[in-house]
Design a protein that fits this description.
By secondary structure, this protein is of the alpha/beta class. The chain is 17% helix and 16% strand. The strands form three sheets. A five-stranded mixed β-sheet has the order 4-3-2-1-11. It has a four-stranded mixed β-sheet with strand order 5-6-9-10, with no helix packed on it. Strands 7-8 form a two-stranded antiparallel ribbon. The C terminus is likely disordered.
Length: 237
């Protein structure tokens, strides 16, 4: 059976702040729309992951899977081993040190990295990569302006100087995907607006009011990369 490639970011398993402190600047609403607290939110993300992803699928988690410094951080990290899929982590600023906790990561992830370059003309990263680092040489010698699929910014988006969302960035934090993993092919299929083509958004019920159908983005998904990457972060607003 052919494996699919999925993306998810900033799950913050076990961390209450995304539910009672983080504010969506577009709406002024605090928290994540699909849950009122961290227990409900973690359960929702885990349930949607388990229902969507098959054991042979590849999952790129774009960082901040858990939050270092919390007493239960490694416990929540270990619990991810029960989630289906071949998991790979783009390390985030809140993740525990992969050097200090190498054995814990090896139980969960096939690989831990800072930046992943895709042949499809995109970079995966936790931080938004500075735009000056998004020029990519491809087969045949041509240079293209690559896309950056990233996490880190939660509700926020990367914008151009004129204030419009920058179409070269796509934020796949769970705040932008309704708590769901999304298909890489959907992320790469976005239009000039920076959002994926063929967006459909559920209006209530499963998987959650206002959240996108599995493998797609909500119409609120916006653009928002890293180490190769980190010649400075992109401007987020």
């Amino acid at each position: 059976m052919v494996s699919r490639v999925w993306l998810i970011s900033d799950t913050h398993f076990g961390h209450p702040a995304p539910y009672d402190k983080f504010v969506d600047p577009a709406t002024g609403v605090v928290g994540r729309s699909w849950a009122s607290n961290v227990k409900e939110g973690d359960e929702f993300i885990r349930d949607m992951w388990a229902e969507t992803i098959r054991p042979q699928d590849i999952v790129y988690h774009l960082g901040d899977a858990v939050v270092a410094g919390r007493r239960d951080a490694l416990e929540h990290l270990a619990a991810m081993s029960s989630l289906p899929g071949r998991k790979r982590l783009l390390i985030g600023n809140h993740d525990p040190s992969p050097i200090k906790h190498r054995a814990a990561y090896e139980e969960v992830f096939e690989d831990v990295m800072s930046v992943k370059r895709l042949k499809a003309g995109a970079y995966l990263s936790h931080y938004p990569i500075h735009e000056s680092s998004l020029m990519m040489r491809v087969k045949g010698g041509a240079t293209i302006h690559a896309r950056n699929i990233h996490g880190h910014t939660h509700h926020e988006v990367v914008r151009m100087e004129n204030g419009e969302p920058n179409p070269h960035y796509l934020n796949v934090c769970v705040e932008k995907t309704g708590g769901l993993p999304i298909l890489l092919e959907a992320a790469l299929g976005r239009g000039a607006s920076g959002r994926p083509d063929g967006i459909r958004t559920s209006v209530g019920g499963s998987p959650g009011a206002g959240s996108p159908e599995r493998g797609e983005f909500s119409s609120g998904t916006s653009e928002g990369g890293g180490e190769a990457a980190r010649r400075g972060m992109a401007t987020v607003a």
